[in-house]
């Protein structure tokens, strides 16, 4: 008879079989997304207040909290982390059309990168301000250190869920602090998005008042409508197989290369461990992102018309659920100062965006979509873009995809600045 290892967590949950747990999680995701799209007035009111993504994290967390499943004992998260996350990074960046982004004009790119910079620099600024009032927040020790949790939000606010999960692994973020920053991320991001939608309804007056030239937006709208018509097609089984071949093939290549890069660095430059350059998963995520960007210059990016990014999004949702099932929900609202930290952080980003838009006389559209492409990613940037004109929604996706490409790098840089601030 096999004897359980004392190092393995005891699974006392109601459901202990991973295949059954995976089925439960996927059904939960399906119900959340179906209800989000329901025309019923109750669900419309509900999701106007509660983001669907928050439920995708927290319902599995509730199941874990009440003992239905056990995230600590399950092997589903390691599976999603090692296979689905790198695949999602490849497929989400594969669609990146850098040429089309450049044709948006320098102001759109400047504002997008300003948003990225605001997230990176805002992290240490916010922590320094809150640390002045509560020095315990600057404690650098342990997996649940505040600075580690902030790296996941930096990854999310520059890229998206895949980058958030990547930072969780790269910086060894504890489940408790991660759960808290999931709440900080979603709540602060949605407050900011509400403000951007408020500006969208007044963009014509604001642009006229500031003397912003909006003629390029008309040309952009015509071009986007043409791209939509040209690229849309029904995916066949060959398309689906090819999408998986690129996604999982690049994932395997990333793991293989990382298995050589990490030992080489440990042997020849061990001091780089301080910068997470000896973390295997850092190289897996960076390589997967890089492969996706490289593929965006090839014919492979035409697979976006067959739904490459949709495959990536499905992988992300499953990943999100497996992360959620590890959360201790009882710890989420125990530290209200973290929400103050998040509001300072998002305010720094917003002030930088508004200041740059004013300085270069950019249309409100560029500021709003450039910001939301960072903070909200592909899930909400099209919402903000559509508030200006429905045909402009893909512009939000286009910039958000660029954010996926930068999220891994930007989140890592923010983490290094936070590490320096706390002396970790």
Core attributes:
424 residues, mainly alpha, 0% strand
**Mean pLDDT figure:** 82
**Whole-number tally of structural domains:** 1
Supply the helix-strand structural class: mainly alpha
Share in helix: over 70%
Amino-to-carboxy terminus distance: 45 Å
Order of H and E elements: HHHHHHHHHHHHHHHHHH
Bulk shape: globular
Secondary structure blueprint with pairings:
Elements (H helix, E strand, L loop, with lengths): L17 H19 L4 H7 L4 H14 L10 H19 L3 H6 L2 H28 L12 H13 L2 H10 L4 H26 L2 H8 L4 H17 L5 H32 L11 H16 L12 H17 L12 H24 L3 H12 L5 H8 L4 H30 L2
What does this structure look like?
The chain starts with 17 loop residues before the first helix and ends with a helix. α1 packs across α14 (308-324), α6 packs across α16 (364-375) and α13 (280-295) runs antiparallel to α18. The chain has helices at residues 18-36, 41-47, 52-65, 76-94, 98-103, 106-133, 146-158, 161-170, 175-200, 203-210, 215-231, 237-268, 280-295, 308-324, 337-360, 364-375, 381-388, 393-422. Helix content is 72%, strand content 0%. The protein is built from 18 helices and no strands. The protein has one domain (18-422). With 424 residues, it is mostly helical.
Condensed summary:
With 424 residues, the chain is mainly α. It has 18 helices and no strands.
């Amino acid at each position: 008879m096999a004897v359980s290892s004392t190092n393995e967590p005891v699974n006392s949950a109601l459901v202990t079989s991973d295949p059954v747990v995976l089925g439960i999680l996927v059904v939960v995701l399906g119900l959340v997304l179906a209800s989000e799209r329901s025309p019923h007035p109750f669900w419309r009111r509900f999701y106007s207040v509660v983001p669907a993504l928050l439920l995708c994290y927290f319902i599995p967390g509730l199941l874990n909290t009440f003992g239905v499943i056990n995230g600590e004992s399950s092997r589903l998260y390691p599976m999603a982390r090692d296979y689905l996350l790198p695949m999602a990074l490849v497929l989400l960046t594969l669609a990146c059309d850098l040429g089309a982004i450049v044709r948006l004009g320098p102001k759109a790119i400047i504002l997008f990168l300003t948003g990225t910079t605001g997230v990176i620099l805002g992290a240490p600024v916010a922590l320094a301000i809150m640390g002045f009032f509560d020095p315990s927040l600057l404690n650098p020790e342990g997996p649940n250190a505040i600075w580690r949790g902030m790296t996941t939000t930096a990854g999310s606010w520059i890229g998206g869920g895949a980058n958030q999960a990547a930072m969780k692994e790269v910086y060894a973020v504890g489940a408790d602090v991660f759960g808290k920053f999931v709440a900080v991320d979603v709540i602060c991001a949605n407050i900011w998005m509400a403000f951007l939608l408020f500006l969208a309804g007044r963009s014509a007056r604001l642009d006229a008042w500031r003397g912003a030239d909006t003629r390029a937006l008309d040309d952009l709208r015509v071009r986007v409508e043409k791209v939509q018509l040209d690229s849309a097609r029904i995916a066949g089984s060959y398309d689906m197989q090819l999408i998986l071949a690129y996604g999982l093939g690049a994932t395997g290549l990333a793991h293989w290369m990382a298995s050589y890069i990490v030992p080489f660095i440990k042997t020849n430059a061990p001091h780089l461990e301080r910068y997470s350059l000896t973390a295997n998963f850092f190289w897996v995520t960076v390589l997967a992102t890089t492969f996706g960007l490289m593929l965006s210059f090839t014919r492979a990016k035409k697979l976006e018309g067959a739904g490459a990014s949709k495959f990536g999004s499905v992988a992300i949702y499953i990943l999100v659920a497996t992360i959620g099932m590890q959360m201790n929900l009882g710890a989420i609202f125990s530290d209200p100062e973290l929400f103050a930290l998040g509001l300072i952080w998002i305010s720094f980003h917003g002030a930088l965006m508004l200041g740059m838009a004013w300085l270069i006389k950019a249309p409100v559209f560029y500021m709003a979509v450039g910001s939301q492409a960072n903070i909200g990613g592909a899930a909400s940037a099209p919402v903000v873009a559509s508030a200006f004109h429905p045909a402009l929604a893909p512009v939000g996706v286009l910039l958000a995809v660029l954010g996926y490409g930068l999220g891994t790098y930007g989140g890592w840089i923010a983490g290094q600045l936070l590490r320096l601030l706390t002396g970790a």
